[in-house]
Structure formats: structure tokens, C-alpha cells
């Protein structure tokens, strides 16, 4: 086991080093921006996976926390001055707000059964969207507003590196989190909530922790997203963001942290190429259809996602006598 | 007074449209325990196909029948391809039907074009009656009548007929019904098709009501439908009727008296109901 982990770590380190060197080797603006986008959505998808993959709850309100991060950063950089200090402060503020709101929302909603919870998060994020649209003095309503990012980020490569650092740090912290005893309890909740409860764990307590962690990380992703566009509007709060995170998570593999990152890469890259293809072939203008079909096929044929499927194949090859303990097709 | 009457009739008509949507959802969720997020897609397809049939035949009856036919075909395809592989797993149901919803919405744009389409009200429902100062739009009355009719029919079938008995028994104990020589898979297929037909019927009636249809209307109304189902208590038929009327009426009053709240009021009702009574207003007995 240790060797496997070591190999994994070495492999990951090499990839991260390559990614760090990337902007110094090439000048391609498109790729820098595209990769930055992938990193940002990787952070969001990882945070979603804490809920879906590790705790087994489907939230439709995840865009709410993404939006909180985006708006906090946008508003603060717009109202105060766009310096690095304010930028960091705005991220921290966004995280604190997201943490408080996810705590309250979690306490209110997590007692409900899965589908009621999904509905209620949908309703609450809908409320949030309406609030943002109506609070024109703060958010400029539907149109959104542009703001100036800190001077350093004018250089796309610098921002790329900052986002990459955020991604690596988030990954390491979240991995510590899911491998901690607390993370194992979350997995226990996912696998069998009743049994976990009867073992004496306060299930609600742990679910709320998972929801706060996911909310805080999502707000970081939102803040970085706002900076990358230097613009924020209500689209950061729509269902589309939640759906993207959901799709990235299940395509990459639920219940792993690498999975959502790979999923984010797959989705962002294919979005990029499909919308590029649309210029030549009109059929690709409706590329969302391909996503819908992909969604359906993944759920039916690869419920474990890319990473999960590879992992299962690996276990089967290595130890055929061990029954894979975790099967996503059951009830995640 | 006349204002209140007008608002009430508006609210009732909207409520009935939402009820038709929610009725299908209730049927599918309450009986088959399937969360169908693609329901709004079926609704939108009903609307588009009825408008298409109407422009083709100039007959409202044929347009409605066309929409129902669309509902049957789509319902059949959906159950066979999408729902069947994921029976009994809520999370996968949510994911797969969401994916199908995307496909349905985009397919609408492929088939009918991405623009909004105007929908006409048939001549005999156009116009309104005036009773004193109260103006009653005929089409709204028609919708209200259809809504109550559908409620009565479905309720009758479920409670009084043998088909309803089989369906309810199948939900309680699938294996038992199976051993009695009834093919429960077929029963579920028919229930799903019935739900899809209710959705497409709702869409077909919706089109002349709003006057304009667009591909994204499916998701908007599906959310309303879900809110209603949750408020009413998942799977409770009278519950969703009551909740639909409640949502329709508050929406209509709020749009007039407190416009700034009108967008959020449904969500608020649902949040309050869920927090204080997570099982919904009506409890479903086994």
C-alpha cells in the first residue's frame, strides 16, 4: 500500500512541476487561460465531491457559495482598492461568509432526506439569486459589474501560478481532511447512515462540517473565477454552475479528489473544442446535447467515473479475491 | 373586489397549470419512487408540439391530441432508456434525468429553432366574459375546468379501479404483485407514460395561456412543479392540487401587491414548509 501511495505522490508531484514550468516555456495565451479555468473549476468540483462523493448528499445549491466568493471579491476590489492585500482579505471574507451561511443552511436542511434536501438547497440558492438581482446598490442586479484586479494579475502567467498554488494547497488540505478520522466518518455516513447513527455518531454534526468545508472551498473557487473574468454577474449563482460541478465530479469519479480535477479538465477542454467546432459545423452549436448524452452514458455505464473505473480495474487485477468494498452503483 | 376576483382567477388558472405538471411528478414519484428531473422537458415538448400541430391543422383539439401523442412517445422512450437502469437509486435518478433534461431542451432548439414561438388561443376560447366589473378570460376558466377534471379522473382511477389497485399494490410490494401474475414492469411503464402525458398536456394548455413558448420554459416550470410536489407532500395527489392552488394564488396576489417578493415567494413557502414540516402538508399513507 505504501509503495502505491508513494508512486501516486511522485506521479502527482511530477505533474505539478510540469504545470508550474508550463507558463515559462510557452507563450500561448489561450492555453494559459484555459488551464487557469480548469484549475478554478477543479477547486469547485473537489469541494462538490466532499458533499457528493464523500458524504453522499446531493446539493443543488452549491453555486450559492461559488457566488458568495465571486461577489465578495468583486465588491471589495471594486469599492476598496485593487491591491494584493485587499484581494487576500476579500478571499478570506468570502470564505468566512460562505462558512457562516453554509453552517446555517446545513443546520436547517441536512436533517431532511436526500431528495427533500436537494429541493431545499435548490430553493435557497434560488432565493439567493433573487436577492442578488434585487440588491442593486451592492450587486448592480442582473447586469453585473466590472472591477479592476490587482495590477500583478495583468500578467496572465502570474495569475495562472497563483491559481495553481491555490489548487495544490486545496488538494493537499482536502486530502488531509478526507483521510482524517473525521473524513472516515463522512464515508461511513455515505455508506450507511443508520449504522453510523447507531454507533453513536451525531450524523447531522458531521454532515454540517462537510457542508461548511465544501462551502468555504467553493467560495475560494468563486473568488478566483471573478478575478479571472474581472467581472461578476448573477450567472455565477445559476444552476448551471452547480450542474457543471456535478458533471465534473461524476465524470471524473465520485469519492476521489483527483477525479473532480480530471473531470474539470475533460469538461472544460471539451467545452472549448466543441464550441470551437461550432464555427465550422453548425451541429456543434448545440454541443450541450453531447453533454447531456455523456451525462446519461456515464451514469449508466461508468457510475464510478474515470478514476473510479481505473481504480476498480486496478484492484481487480492486483487482488482478484478482494471484493471492491466501495461500489458507487449501490447508493452513494 | 373585482380586482380580487381577477387576481384569484388568474392565480387559480396558473395553479391548475402547475398542478398538471405536478400531477405527473406526483404520480411518478409517489407511485414509482422515481425522481424525474426531465419532467420539465416533457412539459416543454408538449407545448412545442401542440403549437406545431395547431399551425398545421388549425384545430385546438388536434393540437392537444398531438401533444398527448408526443407525451406517450417520449414517456415510452424515457422509461425504457433512462429510468429503467436506475430504479431504486435516488442519486443516480437525479443525475441521469438531469442529463436527459439537457438533451430534451437542446433537442427542442434543434427541431424548432432557438427562438421564441408565438402561440395562438383558439377562437372559441379567445376573449372574455364580463360580469359586472369582473372580467373573466374564457381560456383561464377552461384551464381551471380541465385541471379539476384531470384531478377527478386520476383520483378515480387510483382509488376506485382495479388498475389503480394494482399500481398501489405494486408500489407497496413489487414482488407480491409479480407473483400474482401481473407484469409490474409494464404497469410502471404505463404509470410513467401517464405522468409524461400529464406533463405534455400541461405544456399544451400552457402555450396559449402565456402566448409565447421557448425551450427554457421546461426548467422554469419544472422547478415550480417540484416546489408544489414538495409543499404538498411527495406522492400525495390532493396535496399537490392544494399546493398548486396555493402557489398559484400567492404568486398572483404577490405579483400585484408586493411585486418585489413575487419571484421569491414560492421558494419562501417551500423553505418554510420544509423546515417546519419536512414531509409536506399532506402525509402519504403507505
Give a quick set of tags describing it:
heterodimer; A: 332 residues; mainly alpha; two-stranded antiparallel ribbon; globular; B: 286 residues; ABC transporter involved in vitamin B12 uptake, BtuC; 12 helices; 4% strand; transmembrane helix (chain B)
Can you walk through the features of this model?
Chain B: Belongs to the binding-protein-dependent transport system permease family. LivHM subfamily. Chain B: GO terms for molecular function: transmembrane transporter activity. The complex is a heterodimer of chains A (332) and B (286). By secondary structure, chain A is mostly helical. Chain A has 14 helices and 2 strands. Chain A has helices spanning 2-25, 29-55, 62-79, 84-109, 114-134, 136-139, 156-179, 181-191, 193-198, 203-229, 239-252, 258-277, 288-301, 305-318, and strands at residues 145-146, 231-232. Chain A has a two-stranded antiparallel sheet. In chain A, helix 1 packs antiparallel against helix 7. In chain B, the strands form 2 sheets. A two-stranded antiparallel sheet of chain B has the order 1-4. Chain B has helices at residues 2-32, 39-57, 60-83, 90-112, 138-160, 162-172, 174-179, 184-210, 217-232, 237-257, 259-262, 265-276; strands at residues 117-118, 128-131, 134-137, 212-213. Chain B contains 12 helices and 4 strands.
Task: Compile the SSE list and pairings.
The complex is a heterodimer of chains A (332) and B (286).
Chain A: H1 2-25, H2 29-55, H3 62-79, H4 84-109, H5 114-134, H6 136-139, E1 145-146, H7 156-179, H8 181-191, H9 193-198, H10 203-229, E2 231-232, H11 239-252, H12 258-277, H13 288-301, H14 305-318
Antiparallel strand pairs in A: 1-2
Helix pairs in contact in A: 1-7, 2-7, 2-10, 2-11, 2-12, 3-4, 3-10, 4-10, 8-10, 11-12, 11-14, 12-14
Chain B: H1 2-32, H2 39-57, H3 60-83, H4 90-112, E1 117-118, E2 128-131, E3 134-137, H5 138-160, H6 162-172, H7 174-179, H8 184-210, E4 212-213, H9 217-232, H10 237-257, H11 259-262, H12 265-276
Antiparallel strand pairs in B: 1-4, 2-3
Helix pairs in contact in B: 1-5, 1-8, 1-9, 1-10, 2-3, 2-4, 2-8, 2-9, 3-8, 5-6, 9-10, 9-12
Amino acid at each position: 500500500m505504501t509503495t502505491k501511495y508513494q508512486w501516486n505522490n511522485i506521479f502527482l508531484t511530477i505533474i505539478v512541476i510540469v504545470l508550474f514550468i508550463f507558463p515559462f516555456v510557452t507563450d500561448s495565451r489561450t492555453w494559459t487561460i484555459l488551464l487557469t479555468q480548469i484549475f478554478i473549476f477543479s477547486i469547485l468540483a473537489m469541494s462538490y465531491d466532499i458533499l457528493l462523493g464523500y458524504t453522499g448528499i446531493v446539493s443543488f445549491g452549491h453555486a450559492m457559495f461559488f457566488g458568495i466568493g465571486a461577489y465578495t471579491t468583486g465588491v471589495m476590489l471594486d469599492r476598496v482598492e485593487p491591491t494584493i492585500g485587499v484581494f487576500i482579505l476579500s478571499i478570506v471574507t468570502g470564505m468566512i461568509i460562505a462558512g457562516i451561511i453554509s453552517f446555517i443552511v446545513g443546520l436547517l436542511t441536512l436533517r431532511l432526506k436526500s431528495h427533500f434536501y436537494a429541493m431545499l438547497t435548490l430553493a435557497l440558492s434560488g432565493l439567493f439569486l433573487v436577492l442578488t438581482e434585487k440588491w442593486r446598490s451592492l450587486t448592480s442586479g442582473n447586469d453585473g459589474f466590472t472591477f479592476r484586479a490587482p495590477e500583478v494579475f495583468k500578467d496572465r502567467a502570474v495569475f495562472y501560478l497563483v491559481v495553481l498554488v491555490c489548487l495544490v494547497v486545496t488538494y493537499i488540505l482536502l486530502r488531509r481532511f478526507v483521510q482524517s478520522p473525521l473524513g472516515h466518518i463522512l464515508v461511513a455516513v455515505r455508506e450507511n447512515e443508520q449504522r453510523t447513527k447507531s454507533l453513536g455518531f451525531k450524523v447531522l454534526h458531521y454532515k454540517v462540517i462537510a457542508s461548511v468545508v465544501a462551502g468555504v472551498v467553493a467560495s475560494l473557487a468563486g473568488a478566483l473565477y471573478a478575478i479571472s473574468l474581472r467581472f461578476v454577474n448573477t450567472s455565477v449563482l445559476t444552476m448551471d454552475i452547480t450542474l457543471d460541478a456535478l458533471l465534473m465530479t461524476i465524470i471524473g469519479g465520485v469519492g476521489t479528489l483527483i477525479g473532480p480535477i480530471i473531470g474539470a479538465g475533460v469538461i472544460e477542454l471539451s467545452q472549448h473544442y466543441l464550441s470551437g467546432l461550432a464555427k465550422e459545423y453548425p451541429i456543434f452549436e448545440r454541443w450541450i446535447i453531447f453533454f447531456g448524452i455523456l451525462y446519461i452514458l456515464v451514469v449508466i455505464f461508468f457510475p464510478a467515473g474515470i478514476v473510479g473505473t481505473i481504480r476498480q480495474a486496478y484492484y481487480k487485477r492486483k487482488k482478484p479475491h478482494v471484493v471492491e468494498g466501495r461500489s458507487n452503483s449501490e447508493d452513494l | 373586489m373585482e380586482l380580487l376576483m381577477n387576481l384569484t382567477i388568474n392565480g387559480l388558472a396558473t395553479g391548475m397549470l402547475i398542478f398538471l405538471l405536478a400531477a405527473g411528478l406526483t404520480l411518478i414519484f409517489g407511485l414509482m419512487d422515481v425522481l424525474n428531473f426531465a419532467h420539465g422537458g416533457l412539459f416543454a415538448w408538449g407545448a412545442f408540439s401542440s403549437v406545431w400541430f395547431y399551425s398545421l391543422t388549425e384545430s385546438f383539439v388536434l393540437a392537444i391530441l398531438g401533444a398527448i401523442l408526443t407525451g406517450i412517445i417520449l414517456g415510452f422512450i424515457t422509461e425504457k432508456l433512462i429510468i429503467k437502469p436506475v430504479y431504486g437509486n435516488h442519486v443516480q435518478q437525479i443525475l441521469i434525468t438531469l442529463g436527459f433534461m439537457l438533451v430534451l431542451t437542446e433537442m427542442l432548439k434543434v427541431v424548432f429553432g432557438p427562438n421564441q414561438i408565438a402561440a395562438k388561443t383558439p377562437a372559441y376560447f379567445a376573449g372574455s366574459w364580463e360580469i359586472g366589473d369582473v372580467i373573466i378570460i374564457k381560456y383561464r376558466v377552461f384551464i381551471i375546468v380541465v385541471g379539476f377534471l384531470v384531478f377527478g379522473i386520476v383520483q378515480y382511477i387510483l382509488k376506485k379501479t382495479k388498475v389503480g389497485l394494482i399500481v398501489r399494490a405494486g408500489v407497496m410490494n413489487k414482488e407480491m404483485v409479480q407473483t400474482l401474475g401481473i407484469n409490474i414492469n409494464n404497469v410502471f411503464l404505463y404509470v410513467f407514460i401517464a405522468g409524461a402525458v400529464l406533463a405534455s398536456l400541461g405544456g399544451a394548455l400552457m402555450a396559449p395561456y402565456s402566448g409565447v413558448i421557448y425551450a427554457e420554459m421546461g426548467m422554469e416550470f419544472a422547478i415550480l412543479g417540484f416546489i408544489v410536489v414538495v409543499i404538498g407532500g411527495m406522492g400525495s395527489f390532493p396535496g399537490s392540487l392544494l399546493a398548486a392552488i396555493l402557489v398559484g394564488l400567492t404568486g398572483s396576489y404577490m405579483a400585484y401587491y408586493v411585486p418585489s417578493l413575487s419571484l421569491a415567494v414560492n421558494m419562501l413557502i417551500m423553505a418554510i414548509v420544509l423546515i417546519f414540516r419536512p414531509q409536506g402538508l399532506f402525509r402519504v399513507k403507505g
